[in-house]
Write a structure and sequence with these properties.
- InterPro entries: Mutator_MutT, MutT-like, MutY_C, NUDIX_hydrolase-like_dom_sf, NUDIX_hydrolase_dom.
- Its EC number is 3.6.1.55.
- Its cofactor is Mg(2+).
- The termini are far apart.
- The chain has 2 helices and 7 strands, in the order ββββαβββα.
- The chain has a single domain, classed as Nucleoside Triphosphate Pyrophosphohydrolase.
- Strands 1, 2, 3, 4, 5, 6 and 7 form a 7-stranded mixed sheet that branches.
- The longest helix has 13 residues.
- The chain is of the alpha+beta class.
- About 15% of the residues lie in helices and about 45% in strands.
- Strand 5 and strand 6 form a beta hairpin.
- Bound molecules: 8-OXO-guanosine-5'-triphosphate.
């Protein structure tokens, strides 16, 4: 199965993390996620991360640090999540694609349902 490379932004300001709800029709739909999306052919990770944050949230991350890479096999899809920590950005985030977003306190992240691949990310925060 072909692996999909995904840029994932953990946007963390003080003790709060920005999460978004995936639309029902999407892969792993209805679950909460960190903003991001597929890295295009020949695209650099940081560029993909900035592009996705602009497309989904209307912000431009300006402080980006690689956090980890997670390889996960779903029954129908294989993904490599290239996770970066964003500590600063320009703009005011909103769900540009109509998706609900929220700033969750890091201690309450366990109350939200995430895709299985995200459990490892949550353990790092
Ligand atoms: N953005 C994002 N994707 C995630 C997370 N965790 C996780 O398993 N994924 C998986 O990564 C894959 C790519 O994400 P995506 O669906 O947002 O990418 P996209 O918008 O470019 O593609 P699409 O057009 O297929 O929806 C999906 O299979 C999704 O289920 C996460 O926290 N954030």
């Amino acid at each position: 199965m072909k692996t999909v490379n995904v840029a994932v932004a953990v946007i963390k300001i003080a003790d709060r993390v920005l999460i978004a709800k995936r639309a029902n029709h999407q892969h792993q739909g209805g679950l909460w996620e960190f903003p991001g999306g597929k890295i295009e052919e020949g695209e650099e990770l940081l560029n993909a991360l900035q592009r996705e944050c602009h497309e989904e949230l209307d912000i431009l991350p300006i402080s980006i640090t690689p956090l980890t890479t997670i390889h996960h096999q779903y029954p129908d899809k294989s993904v490599s999540l290239h996770v970066c920590l964003v500590r600063d950005y320009l703009g005011v985030p909103f769900g540009k694609e109509g998706q609900p977003i929220t700033w969750a306190h890091q201690t309450e992240l366990n109350n939200f349902q995430f895709p299985a691949a995200n459990l490892e990310i949550l353990s790092l925060l």
